[in-house]
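Predict structure. Chain length: 244.
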Amino acid sequence: MATFVLVPGAWLGAWAWEDTARTLRENGHTALPLTLTGLAERAGQGGPETDLNTHIADIAGFIEENGLRDVTLVAHSYAAAPVTGAAGRLVDRLERVIYVDSAPFTAGMCMLDLMPPEAADQLNRQVSASGDGWRLPMPPFEVLGLSGSLVGLGEGQRDALCSRATPHPFGTYTQRLAGPTEPGAGVDRVLITCHDFMGLLDAGTPMLAYLKQPPWRRFELPTGHWPMLSAPTELADILDKAVS
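Prediction complete.
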């Protein structure tokens, strides 16, 4: 049985993984959802100084302080950035890294690199105008859907996102990832692609070509960008297959 550490994407906390974690536990696994600094029940711990290094330290510290080994570290969306950083520091504690509708970062990258300059400028203005200069509020669904598929999110899931989402510390978007970023050579590497990332890989995006080759393994889940909300049981089943 595997030990999963489940890291949520932007605006989310451990709560987003509740249903998937429950199914994993029913299947005999250890499932440990993690809330990062400045989000959900840890919102009060965030501040202007909260950055990508903070979230990398959250993940590495959680695994080390709990004495966890042979960990399957799972990143959803934004969490790909801090999980990549943590994986480079936890070589002897990891068995596997899994990226859910996301991909590992390379040294020198930041979240803002993934969007057009005009979109990045818009986020900076939004943070200045309505986020006290350091918090990024979750955008409305009509804007959110421009960058992530909303397929599978019913009224209940959308209500949960709206009511439980937390403004995200923007320093985690602007700070560039520093090394080390590579997990150990023997660490298993897995992608779970939903609608968004399926399209990018299948279109032959050059910078992602390496993800279609060993040692990477790929599983597909035909749902939107938030599978832990839109298809939590199906996501748990794929996670179970990935470690079997």
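Summary: The first strand starts at residue 3 and ends at 7.
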